Amino acid sequence: MKVFYEGMEMTKTKSNVSGALTLTALENWGGSHAWLPLENIPQVPEGALLGRVVSEAREIYSLEVFEAGGQSGREQLAELTGRLRYLSEDRESLPVVGDWVAVTAPSGFDRLLVHAILPRRTVLRRRAVASRGAQLLAANVDRAFLAMSLNQDFNPRRLERYLGICREAGVDPVIVATKLDLCAGDETLETRLEELRQAGRGAEVIGLSVWTRAGIQRFVDLASEPGKTSVLLGSSGVGKTTLVNFLLGEERLETQGIREGDDRGKHTTTRRELLLLPNGGVLIDTPGMRELGWLEGSDAGEQVFDEFGEWAARCRFTDCGHASEPGCAIRVAIESGELDAGRFAHWKKLEREAAFVERKSDPVVAARERERWKKIGKEGRERSLAKRGKT
Prior knowledge:
It contains 11 helices and 15 strands. The chain has helices at about 25-30, 80-85, 155-170, 190-200, 215-225, 240-250, 300-305, 305-310, 330-335, 340-360, 365-385; strands at about 10-15, 20, 50-55, 60-65, 70-80, 100-105, 110-115, 125, 135-140, 145-150, 170-180, 205, 230-235, 275, 280-285. The relative contact order is 0.10.
């Protein structure tokens, strides 16, 4: 029976090939959860093997494949079967870094064939601000390290966007405040760390410096937890590549010095890649993202800005827009200092972005919006003509 393993309490399980399938290799690559039998997944042929997506480029996938007997084989290239590509309705139906897939090795073919994606435990999605659809960042992730620089690039509002996609995916966020050495002795250091704690709404905050080793051990301990998959997210120049090289114990990924004037590192990572760490754990490295929007219909805002929902329930009117309406509890709380004005402004900005996406993507709403602006334009022209004495 083609079962890879049923649970952590078992040490081995039966396979349709000779030999026993040990858990060690699977655990090393983040496979610490129970699999369904491959034969229960449609369109998976007899003799299929299990693989995990390490990287992807133009629908050519690099996989770590678990050979007969359960041992991890060498990294191999794979592509989709024609059927899987045909049946894929959108990008979410295609493999992404971190996915577990069922593959075969056809005779006389120099690449593996991906027949199916195994059910995902978690998946991180984003919407680029200028786009309607979803972009998958990584799959089967347990923890997300959100890198935020403590120097001149410090931006808690950007962090809130990352927190939103983590909360919605059910992935535990850990805020990694980098470049601690550039703020050492700075009186604003503790203030900035406290801002991150406030933005994190309960997420752990680790202030660290790779160069002085301050705070680094906690980060290493979390990233190297056996059987866990982490993803490293953050904008370009916050030091993600330096953190990855430290975990790997070698300068495997190219780094560049910081720019003069703004202390930002120069962008180096160009693709998402799953890395096996020498001390345990798996890490997905990602390039910096210039745009990070929440998906239409997302409840990320309710989770990241939950304090505003609590205060909104106290407003006099249930449809309060929290602008100039009388009896607005949120405005009173901001004026008294009980709520943060900066977080409120960002919350409203993200709401406007979501409304814009809905207008663009929903044909009915888009048509109504066009009619509304036509009416506004017509009334404006009529007022202009009336002022000039024309009709």
